[in-house]
Amino acid sequence: MISNWSAEFSQWLYGLRPTIKVHQFSLFKTKLARWERLNKWNDKGGVMLMGYEIYRRLSNHEDYQFFLTNPGPDMIVCDEGHVLKNANAGISKALSRIRTKRRIILTGTPLQNNLKEYYYMVHFVKPHLCKLKSVKNRNFVE
Asked: I need a surface site. Which of 14, 23, 31, 72 has the fewest CB within 10 A?
């Protein structure tokens, strides 16, 4: 999926001035190379393409927290955002620590009338917009 996004950015940003650098994080394998890439991205800006699992692992390491959580990116876009359907999942917790007000979720997966899953996705994008209430073991969104 990351390489597909890289190709999309290359296509749509071609010839754009000023240029926007797209960094494909998975191409960097060593700790030093990853740290250098994040440092360059932090200094110069651009787009950082990174999978959920590597983000979760790196965001828990002090060496990477400045780049990934605090202050972190100006905006995050989560493709396959339905993976955030559970606020207690490690990925959801890690992404929620990012200090940004610009969050977008993309998903092609229908939520199949599960309001709790929908609530968690909305809560990730705009915390406290809705309230989740439980009444007799059933969840309701207000």
From this structure: 14
Residue 137 lies in a domain: no
Instruction: Locate 85 and state its tokens.
Output: 């359907």
39 contacts 21 by C-beta, under 8 angstroms:
no
Tell me what percent of the chain is helix, strand and coil, each rounded to the nearest 5: 45, 15, 40
Q: At 33, which CATH number?
A: 3.40.50.10810
Residue 45 domain-assigned (yes or no): yes
Number of domains comprising the chain: 1
Residues 97 and 73 sit within 8 Å (Cβ to Cβ): no
* Residue-level pLDDT at 23: 93
Supply the pTM of this predicted model. 0.79
Query: What tens digit of pLDDT does each residue of 127-141 get?
Result: 878 776 655 555 555
User: Which structural domain, as residue segments, surrounds residue 38?
Assistant: 2-110
Please provide the DSSP assignment of 79-101 as one string: TTGGGG--TTSHHHHHHHT---S
